[in-house]
Amino acid sequence: MIAVERRNMIKELLLKNRSVKVSELVKQFNVSEETIRRDLHQFEQEGFVQKNYGGAILVDELHRNDSILPIQQRKSQFYQEKQLIGKRAAQLVEPEQTLILDAGSTTWHVASGLEGINNLMVITNAMNIAEACTRNDSTSIYLLGGKLRRNSLSTVGPQAEIELKKYNADYVFLGTSGISLRQGFTSSDLYEAEMKKAMVSAGQKIVVLADHSKLQKAGLTSFCHFDQVDLFITSDMADEKILYEIEKIGVEIIVVSTSEIKEFS
């Protein structure tokens, strides 16, 4: 069993039982105590657990029970704001570049905005994003394999994560479930968080996209910290105080104007 699979299973145990013991995990996964302690240390760094003597306890926070809505429902939330953010992100792309697009409602708008940009190579784990990219005949599309998540029409799991190691993309475009000044960019799904981490490792420039609502909550687990991100794109509906704090950390921020929304009405 590879480390990603073991850690995902440990996180599932934590969600179910609220706590774990090192001794029990050593027996269950047939690994050393040192290995389990490294896993728990990683979870603590992510803000997912608090270690104690002999194990760890799940950290309960507000908003951590948020479920992931089906993709069609998420696309309808703040649709025009997301459309503007996605359109602005697509403007970064030049012909003949390689892109990785994460599954998500805002990244779907990036894909829709790529029409007319020639000879792109797009790698994605999202079926609806792959479909959107077919509108451009010159785009090469690579759909990552793995287990299909019906609610997001995306693939996750070790197979997809291993495939990502083959690529070196010019841009990686990522959505996020929430943003925390302590945790960075977060996801509400353990498997999708691991996929996002693999995408971050496969790109030269990392771009995170989020509508204003994502700055008011934190997801279940962190997938990247601010120092791993080159650019954050949001709208002028976002809390200026939070944006100021993120900018102080060193992240470049693009804020799109929602006054343009009337053009899409």
From TrEMBL:
One of its GO terms (molecular function) is DNA binding. Residues 3-58 form the HTH deoR-type domain. Keywords: DNA-binding, Transcription, Transcription regulation. It comes from the Bacteria. PROSITE patterns: HTH_DEOR_1, HTH_DEOR_2. SUPFAM superfamilies: NagB/RpiA/CoA transferase-like, Winged helix' DNA-binding domain. InterPro entries: Carb_Metab_HTH_regulators, DeoR-like_C, DeoR_HTH, NagB/RpiA_transferase-like, Tscrpt_reg_HTH_DeoR_CS, WH-like_DNA-bd_sf, WH_DNA-bd_sf. PANTHER family: AGA OPERON TRANSCRIPTIONAL REPRESSOR-RELATED (PTHR30363:SF44), HTH-TYPE TRANSCRIPTIONAL REGULATOR SRLR-RELATED (PTHR30363). This is DeoR/GlpR family DNA-binding transcription regulator. The lineage of its organism: Bacteria, Bacillati, Bacillota, Bacilli, Bacillales.
